[in-house]
Design a protein that fits this description.
Helix 10 runs parallel beside helix 12. It is globular and about 65 Å long. Strands 9-8-10-11-5-12 form a six-stranded parallel sheet. A two-stranded parallel sheet has the order 1-2. The chain has three domains: about 150 residues, no CATH class; about 210 residues, 3-Layer(aba) Sandwich (Rossmann fold); about 100 residues, no CATH class. The chain is built from 23 helices and twelve strands. Helices cover about 45% and strands about 10% of the residues. It is an alpha/beta fold and about 500 residues long.
């Protein structure tokens, strides 16, 4: 087999080319194109797309480079027999000249008929669609081409019945109430005897789960949401999320990159980000935690600062491309700090911060933290990898720990008689709480632990959440945040 990963992105954005955790690193088209270029073009490519050095390029230089890259790309694609690419890439100019015997579409529930037709036009004799019709459909559409195929052609449907992606307790409810017990979820006590599962789902957060077999916790919030520009915000949930994130990353128990925060409302997303950015304690922990991980990496190589990376590469004959490959994470950190120093967008964060590569890493991070404290700002997502996103944007992603902020709560208005329970039913077809696809996505993105913040008395009146709240109550997985204060 001759596999190939095709991406339209250039080197500066295509981190999967360099990052060792990506298995397709050595099969990336961009990487293979780079390696096949002549030394002259290779230097031009590196300076243009990777190092971003202030070098002037003539139009002819770039024209020749692009033509050479295109010719190399076509040649490499032609000599490969298994192509991995995104939907956008499959319909791009790079793939126009090729036909395929078999086309396999992953996350097919997100494809429209028009997009599938574009793939079929590749003269494929077999079309294999892989997806989940219980999850989200394309934005703005009630049904996808995939779900229509399942309803009209059940004979050619194969149900996958094993899951290894998340702790069994996280999927248990969706499996019983939505999937009809089709994915097989072994009893956790049986899984514990299997060392690979035990190690894979090992919890390092230190959170007081109800039992070893449960990794879902619903944290009750008794404050009603408020409406801002026709969008809902729940300030109490945002405050609790900050405390929870502080607990998770304390003592480097959980890497910030392993935490995802999901909410159905954009206003809440930005409010949570605002609260995280302005929390001094959190930013201090993030900065020191990031420093310690980078320092540990350099320490294993016997290096103390950025300057010694150059010496290391010279000693072992590592060229620019290999250097970027090996020290990608370190260089990314250095460039981030340098960019924030120079960027007008973040001048408030880093004014006066000198990101010299000759400076000791610890001093660099201490300076950075001092600026964070002084200005109460921090690029949470861009720098530390802690992701805050909407439900749609999180489809296809996974984090070890997910914090779900449900936001909406109008219990006080219900109790006062200001609104009737029937009012909550008016827009059930369009609301998040009645959308099975959104529910499945938001509650199945975690592999190790799921935290849900909301008002159980409000949610028990809304669609599938009625059953979910009852399920969690029977499992004793509902608590108040005040109950957790002595523990976290």
């Amino acid at each position: 087999m001759r596999p190939l990963k095709v991406s339209l992105r250039k080197f500066n954005n295509d981190y999967s080319i360099f990052h060792p955790k990506y298995k397709l690193t050595h099969y990336s088209l961009n990487r293979l194109v780079y390696l096949s270029l002549s030394p002259e073009y290779k230097k031009l490519y590196f300076n243009k797309f990777i190092s971003h050095e202030a070098i002037k390029f003539t139009p002819n230089d770039l024209k020749d480079l692009n033509r050479e890259m295109y010719d190399k790309s076509i040649s490499i694609i032609r000599n490969s027999n298994v192509i991995f690419c995104t939907k956008k890439t499959s319909l791009s100019y790079l793939m126009d000249a090729f036909n395929f015997d078999t086309v396999i579409v992953d996350d097919a529930n997100l494809f429209l008929e028009s997009e599938i037709i574009g793939l079929i036009s590749k003269k494929c004799s077999r079309l294999i669609l892989i997806g989940d019709d219980k999850q989200l459909s394309p934005r703005g559409y009630e049904n996808s081409f995939f779900s229509k195929c399942i309803r009209k052609n059940k004979r050619n449907v194969i149900q996958l019945d094993q899951q290894y992606r998340m702790h069994p307790s996280i999927l248990d409810f969706s499996n019983k109430y939505i999937y009809g017990n089709k994915p097989s979820i072994d009893n956790f006590n049986e899984i514990q005897t299997k060392e690979k599962f035990k190690e894979k789902f090992k919890d390092k957060s230190g959170f007081p789960w109800r039992s070893e077999s449960e990794r879902v916790m619903f944290i009750n919030n008794h404050k009603d949401s408020i409406v801002v520009d026709n969008c809902f915000i729940n300030t109490e949930e945002a405050n609790e999320i900050v405390k929870l994130v502080n607990f998770l990353i304390s003592d480097n128990k959980v890497n910030p990159e392993d935490i995802g925060i999901i909410t159905p409302y954009m206003a809440q997303k930005f409010y949570i980000k605002h609260k995280l950015i302005h929390d001094k304690e959190l930013n201090y922990k993030l900065a020191l935690g990031y420093y310690s991980r980078i320092h540990e990496f350099l320490y294993k190589l016997g290096l103390k600062n950025f300057d010694e990376i150059d010496k290391y590469c010279e000693t072992y004959g590592i060229d620019d491309f290999q250097k970027y490959n090996k020290f990608h994470e370190i260089i990314k950190v250095y460039n981030k700090i340098k960019d924030y120093t120079l960027s007008s967008r973040y001048k408030g964060i880093s004014r006066g911060l000198v990101a010299s590569k000759h400076e000791n890493l610890e001093q660099l991070f201490i300076k950075y933290y001092q600026k964070v404290v002084k200005n109460q700002k921090s690029p949470i997502e861009e720098f530390y990898g802690l992701e805050i996103s909407s439900i749609h944007d999180f489809l296809g992603k996974q984090k070890k720990y997910i914090i779900l902020s449900t936001v909406k709560s109008e219990v006080a208005r219900l109790n006062l008689g200001e609104i009737d329970i029937n009012e909550l039913e008016k827009n059930k077809k369009n609301g998040y709480f009645y959308d099975i696809g959104r529910f499945v996505v938001s509650t199945t993105r975690a592999s190790h632990g799921l935290f849900i913040l909301g008002h159980s008395d409000h949610l028990r009146n809304l669609g599938i959440w009625t059953n979910y709240i009852e399920y969690l109550e029977n499992k004793h997985c509902i608590c108040n945040f005040d109950d957790l204060k002595p523990l976290i």
